[in-house]
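#dry-run=false #mode=assembly
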Amino acid sequence: MQLDQLYQEIILDHYKRPQGRGLREPFAAGVHHVNPTCGDEITLRVALDGETISDISYDGQGCSISQASASVLHELLSGRKVDDALAVHAAFVELMGGKGQVVPDEEVLGDAVAFAGVAKYPARVKCALLSWMALKDAVAQAVALEKEEV
Amino acid sequence: MQLDQLYQEIILDHYKRPQGRGLREPFAAGVHHVNPTCGDEITLRVALDGETISDISYDGQGCSISQASASVLHELLSGRKVDDALAVHAAFVELMGGKGQVVPDEEVLGDAVAFAGVAKYPARVKCALLSWMALKDAVAQAVALEKEEV
Amino acid sequence: MTALTIPAGMPQYDDKPRFDVERVRADFPILGREVNGHPLVYLDSGNTSQKPRQVIDAVARYYAEHNANVARSVHTLGTESTEAYEGARAKVAAFIGAPSVDEVVFTKNATEALNLVAHAFGPHAQDPRFRLGPGDEIVISEMEHHSNIVPWQLLCQRTGATLRWFGLTESGRLDESNLDELVNERTKIVSIVHMSNVLGTVNATARITARVREVGALLMLDCSQSVPHLPMDVVDYDVDFIAFTGHKMLAPTGIGVLWGRGELLNVMPPFLGGGSMIETVKMTGSTFAPAPARFEAGTPPIAQAVGLGAAIDYLNAVGMDAVAWHDKELTAYALDALDTVPGLRIYGPRVPVGRGATISFTLDKIHPHDVGQVLDSLGVQVRVGHHCAKPICDRFSVPALTRASFYLYTTTDEVDALVRGLDQVRKVFA
Amino acid sequence: MTALTIPAGMPQYDDKPRFDVERVRADFPILGREVNGHPLVYLDSGNTSQKPRQVIDAVARYYAEHNANVARSVHTLGTESTEAYEGARAKVAAFIGAPSVDEVVFTKNATEALNLVAHAFGPHAQDPRFRLGPGDEIVISEMEHHSNIVPWQLLCQRTGATLRWFGLTESGRLDESNLDELVNERTKIVSIVHMSNVLGTVNATARITARVREVGALLMLDCSQSVPHLPMDVVDYDVDFIAFTGHKMLAPTGIGVLWGRGELLNVMPPFLGGGSMIETVKMTGSTFAPAPARFEAGTPPIAQAVGLGAAIDYLNAVGMDAVAWHDKELTAYALDALDTVPGLRIYGPRVPVGRGATISFTLDKIHPHDVGQVLDSLGVQVRVGHHCAKPICDRFSVPALTRASFYLYTTTDEVDALVRGLDQVRKVFA
Ligand SMILES: Cc1ncc(COP(=O)(O)O)c(C=O)c1O
Ligand SMILES: Cc1ncc(COP(=O)(O)O)c(C=O)c1O
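#status=ok
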């Protein structure tokens, strides 16, 4: 396999210059996820403004794939409507589970299309998904909390 | 292998017409031994008269080899001095552990030489030894008890 | 020997799935060997099955081409090994109709699987279904293999719970007459054998399942003998756990399976602790991965799982319906044939219905060891003894039994060889 | 790169036992394959070793010619299998200098062996040495594999005993400065790794053993990494238990070994219950066989034991002294070579003394996953992550490490390939 399919320039870029890194206040829900096989960790917070995800802030440690993936996630989904964000989320999960057979839609996925190559490396799929799974968890908690408050 | 090496006439004879079978009183020590892999069982008693094994009585269930072996044991060792009996015992154990390579001494072992063929069947060695191991155990207990009483 | 007659209106022989036994035999290298100067007649498949070339080769190929540890590496060999190992899990899940691959736990054998479930019970279990103490009851049966008796006896010793059991009828079936009293509100789990390794009985579980559900207990089936021989669907059966073992189904030694409902596995505490079953480890305490990883501590039997996958491919290619039908025809033939041997008494069902291809018997007063020895001198390999199921011997007041057990490679000629051998046995011990 | 210089008066290089690495390599089919277009460079033997043809064939031959269940049959195949299985036990016993074959218990891996010993302890143990409750202490170390941490944590949870541990020095050795306080009259067992799977450290045990004997505790060594690489004599070492695992010493997956002093094994309660470990079973209660059978419930990993026997034959033919010396030369070479890589930091002893052929490191701030991935693209297989030893990462405040580990088939050329690969890694992530 070609290494640069995996390490696309975009990924290395996000890895070296992560977007939106750091934990910020206020936030509606925060989660901590771990990848037990490799020890990668992420702490992730979402802030809601009505139906909109007003911020995604995060901190963690891990490989280039997991760090770049969190940076792309921040860039792509901050400021989006919850429903929209979940649709993009679903498209990303499908891409990652596709073993390299799924053709990504750049309209939907933006920079995240760069992760298409990762799907061919089963051992790395979990790295790419770490922050995305954390996001889903955090959004679900935030929405549930909001409903309780109403 | 030749089946009749294993099932010597002498063995079938003892099996069909066991000598000294049945549990008798008085006795100095009694034991119960089990072969866990096949479920063969023996209850065996020894009576002592000073240094002499005045009787070996037994009851049990098992295959032709284990039953014949008990019968031969009774015939061979009842009435013998404890030390003599243990010497014969050692010769029999050596024969059984010899994988068919040990040449038995008929002077010492009497009818028990018929078990020479059994030594080539590792799965059956335990059958042949069941009553002999029980005897050793019972004699040791009986001798120990006698000492205590003195 | 009479043939089985099927009443009109029922599916007839010709409707049954079949395969070519000789072609199957050609796949098993060991069947070409001789024993004591006679062609091998292997009638001990209930003890362990023989292995086809396809399984032997799959294991060798794994070591020669892909070998690495699983779930721990990003390198290519590690990825290939992980895919082979998880691929085997998926094959197992499909083979038994498991709703999720995560419900398939690899163990070293069926015995470990049974112990694993027994160890989930205890006085401090978080989930009330696994909380066990004095006054609580566990139900097994008198026809269990020691591996489905001793773990529960040890559990009762640890916790003060009470072990109870189904008795057996004269014809070797479960005595369900006291079902409602035996399985009651105090019952926490019923764990019974699906097919007896001694009597051959296949237990109909519907009434027991209904009662188990009524009282809110759990149900485990020991499928060590059934999964190799009969199509199995864990959802259809409506059970909570099943255990089975690779070596009896054409696969390597060293691998077994626990299947459990995901919802239950995930509330069970870990059993063995170590690598791969953790979420995170600190010196001061650890957290654990979800099932199945939680129950697979240490390096698992990787090559053996790959071999089990190959065995399942083999069985699927032949077809489990065809295997089951082959068993039934052979059993019918053998029951008839053994009926012609004077002094032979069969223990277990004497009709080829509700039973598998395993027949245990006594011959006059000749000890099974002697029966087995004479048969071995003729190349016929049967098992003798208590078959790791002593309570059955006690129930029927026999010290030991001789057992012939068949599989997809067994032929009627081999049954004939057994019958001829038994004549010889009677001659030696006449 | 500098060579190791041995002071005059000590045995010189030429006195050392040697073997022809290329001839050894020819025995390992997998070493002929390519990965990502490059020759395979397998530097992950600490995770699992590759298998020589002799072992692969021994397993295949067993299935094709002798396969049967053990210890249960009088038939010829059963006898042959039992001899093969017990023969393997005898080989293991001889390999580690065990006084008796009955002290060798086959398990599925090292992890099960460690758990087995942990499960022998409890509040109701018959033998006072295994009686454990609140106030009692168990001592491990910060350099343990999870498999020698979690079983003891779970045991402490069950019994209320306290877990304590040796710390580590900066250079990755056991910190024994508080030995006398740490191991004391309350200590029941000290269980430590013989050779660390991360740091490579080989622990000198003499002082610890002396203290353990003084306070009357038991001593267990996790020899998973040492038995494959160093000559071992359990009597010389004066330990009570050792655990190791087949797959790291050229043998199949699915087999491990617990060695224990016979006198201890025979007072330990059974762990897994089931077939073959019993003396007699009644519905109302059972009695158990002596060791080793007592701890081998169910059908054991028969073919895997046979494979382990073949692996031991192979290692004996090469000579364990020669294996150890090859390791040492290679480690000296690799430590020097890695020293030339800018930004590389080694965790563990940096001299080839009191350490084995396992080197863990970080490279700049590049995450080990990325290091491993780039190396893999060049055919170089190393392990990355926490190596099932998270507390070591915590101790040295690193999230993860890259590890290269060698064995008798590893060459200096392969070390060079690693070093070249690391240059490439630095280029990609510059
Ligand atoms: C030091 C050490 N202990 C224990 C183990 C566990 O061995 P296994 O996974 O074969 O049970 C390993 C290997 O993974 C190890 O390196
Ligand atoms: C009914 C039954 N249960 C359990 C077992 C145990 O299987 P294993 O020995 O592979 O653990 C066996 C086979 O020996 C069996 O026949």
